[in-house]
Structure formats: C-alpha cells, structure tokens
Write a structure and sequence with these properties.
The chain is of the alpha/beta class. The protein has helices at residues 13-24, 36-46, 65-75, 103-126, 161-181, 202-210, 224-231, and strands spanning 4-7, 28-33, 53-57, 82-85, 134-140, 187-193, 242-245. The chain has a 7-stranded parallel beta sheet with strand order 3-2-1-4-5-6-7, sandwiched between helices. Helix 4 (103-126) links the parallel strand 4 (82-85) and strand 5 (134-140). Helix 3 (65-75) runs parallel beside helix 4 and helix 4 (103-126) runs parallel beside helix 5 (161-181). The protein starts with a strand and ends in a 7-residue tail after the last strand.
C-alpha cells in the first residue's frame, strides 16, 4: 500500500527523529517548517532512503495557512494517507519575569496546539484528493497532569502554563475528532510524551529521574514506537486514545 505521511514541524527535536525513521522504513514523508532553508537541510541530511521526503515551508499560524497547505499538496498530486500533528512554536512559550503569561502567547500556543491540528485534520479528511486513514497528535504529560514544582527547583515561574493547558485541549480534541471522523473510518489518537533527553542540563536530568518510576528521561529513539503503533494496523481497535509514553511519570 502506498503510504504518505504528513508530519508537521519536521525540523524540530521530535520531528527530525520521526521524519528520518519513517522515510527509512519506506514511507513517503511530507514535512513542514517555517524556514525553507531548515527543511531543505533536513531533507539533504537524511539523504537517499527507501521512501521519499518532501519539505515544504509554511507558517501554519498565518490566516488560512492550513487550507493553503492542503491545496498545495493536492496541486502537487500528493495524496496524504496519514497525518501527525507535531508542529510547535517556541515563540508562544514566552513567560514574563513575574511568571505571568501574556494573552498573545496564550492565544498563540492554543492556536498552534489545537486550532492548526483541527484545521489540517478536517481539511484533509474532507478533501476528495486525499485518502486519510489515521491521525496522531503529539501531546504531553502536561496535558494530563500539572507540572511538579520539585522538577523546577520549587518554582513554576519559568514553566509556561499555556503549554499544558493547550496540550490538555489537544488531548480532548483527539477524542472529539475520533468521534466526528469515525464515519469516514479515520482513526484519531494522541501520544502524551514525558521529558526527552537532550535539551536540559545534568541537574534537571537528575531531578527528573527522582520523580519518575523509570528513573530516567526518555531517549529520542523512544519517540518512534508509540507513533508507529498508532499509525499502523496493529492499533486498528484503538481510537480516541491518549497513549502515555512517559516512563510512568503520570502514575504518581
């Protein structure tokens, strides 16, 4: 079967791992970034694979961008069969020195985490030029549980409240879409990841290890399995589910 995956935000930490993996497994992968040079560099770095990687530059927070993106894919003859909503914007995670989040950051984060995945899912599912089978949203443990102050040296002043609130909304969007798209035989699920190695210092890693049953952060390669499972036939009975991939963080 021809499998073409649209994975938004392919130049980010999670995106790069997933784009490379699925391309090497023979999937055709389309990915996006706001910066054409970054997405071109990603495609070049991956090099020849069993599948084909296409990089498209688009700012999904611009008005009407989701519809334009789907139109561009259709015009190129690209038929999307699977969708992973992964795009992020670090700009919307800003927190003021006093720990408050400004309204524009709150709205921007909600737009990126909820509105954009909703629009892309709906536009692709309704297009006769695509053949969508499964959707996987990239969530977070902070969409399920609140942050633990012990991880942040006792204060949450630098932990963006808009992130967790928006991820919680994404988790519920997953359930809503699972119901609304079921008549089209499209499954919608979500992966709520715990913390991943690579962007924090050793002290943070040590504190994190004390707060999770697995006693460690996730490794980058552990990002792959949950998404692959939810995209594939092995999860054919799974719909509207938020899969916790967190080393047990959320059970305490």
């Amino acid at each position: 079967m021809n499998r073409t995956l649209l994975l938004t935000g392919g130049t980010g930490k999670f995106g790069q791992v997933l784009v490379r993996y699925f391309a090497e497994k023979g999937w055709n992968v389309v990915t996006s970034s706001r910066d054409q040079s970054r997405v071109d560099a990603l495609v070049s770095d991956i090099g020849p694979t069993e599948g084909h990687v296409t990089g498209i530059a688009i700012d999904l927070q611009h008005e009407g961008a989701s519809q334009r993106f789907v139109d561009v894919l259709s015009a190129r003859g690209i038929v999307i069969t699977h969708l992973v909503n992964n795009a992020r914007s670090m700009d919307t995670l800003a927190v003021q020195p006093d720990g408050m989040t400004q309204p524009q950051a709150f709205v921007g984060e909600f737009e990126m985490d909820v509105v954009v995945p909703y629009e892309l899912s709906m536009y692709i599912s309704r297009s006769e030029k695509h053949d969508l089978k499964t959707i996987v949203n990239i969530g977070s443990i902070y969409g399920q549980v609140a942050p633990n102050p012990a991880l942040y040296n006792g204060t949450l002043s630098r932990s963006p409240v808009q992130y967790g609130v928006s991820k919680a909304a994404l988790h519920h969007l997953t359930r809503e879409l699972a119901v609304r798209l079921a008549p089209q035989h499209i499954r919608v699920n979500c992966v709520a990841y715990g913390g991943v190695e690579g962007r924090v210092d050793e002290d943070f890693v040590s504190r994190y290890a004390q707060l999770v049953p697995a006693r460690r952060m996730l490794k980058e390669l552990e990002l792959i399995g949950p998404v692959e499972f939810l995209l594939g036939d092995a999860s054919s009975a799974v719909n509207g589910h938020v899969l916790m991939a967190d080393g047990g963080w959320s059970v305490w």
